[in-house]
Design brief:
The chain is α+β, with helices and mostly antiparallel strands. The chain has one domain: 2-Layer Sandwich (Alpha-Beta Plaits), CATH 3.30.70.20. The chain has two helices and three strands, in the order E-E-H-H-E. The chain has a three-stranded antiparallel beta sheet, with helices on one face. Strand 1 and strand 2 form a beta hairpin. The longest helix has 8 residues. It binds iron/sulfur cluster. Iron/sulfur cluster binds next to helix 1.
Length: 87
């Protein structure tokens, strides 16, 4: 079984999804359909709701497939910009 992990961030919070644990309970996409969109790729759009709503919904995942990482707990995402200059 795969241990693959996918991450989706809005710059403030990162949603971590482990597909091998997902039991397709539908709870995330019924609870917060602006963020969890199973018919799309990527299927998680963290810009669809504010951080608190995302944290609350992720906490309701019954399988542990979803978890949260707060971006201010280490690393500064805005620093990533420094490697994007092609010249
Ligand atoms: S709530 Fe958790 S187990 Fe249910 S579909 Fe979403 S990620 Fe999968």
């Amino acid at each position: 079984m795969s241990d693959k992990t996918h991450t989706y961030t809005n710059g403030e919070v990162t949603i971590v999804w482990k597909p091998s644990l997902c039991t397709h309970s539908k709870r995330c996409w019924l609870g917060l359909p602006a963020v969890f969109k199973p018919g799309q790729r990527p299927w998680i759009l963290p810009e669809g709701a504010d951080t608190q709503a995302i944290v609350d919904q992720v906490g309701k995942c019954p399988s542990g497939a979803l978890s949260i990482r707060m971006n201010d707990e280490g690393g500064r995402p805005e620093d990533d910009r420094s490697i994007q200059d092609p010249t």
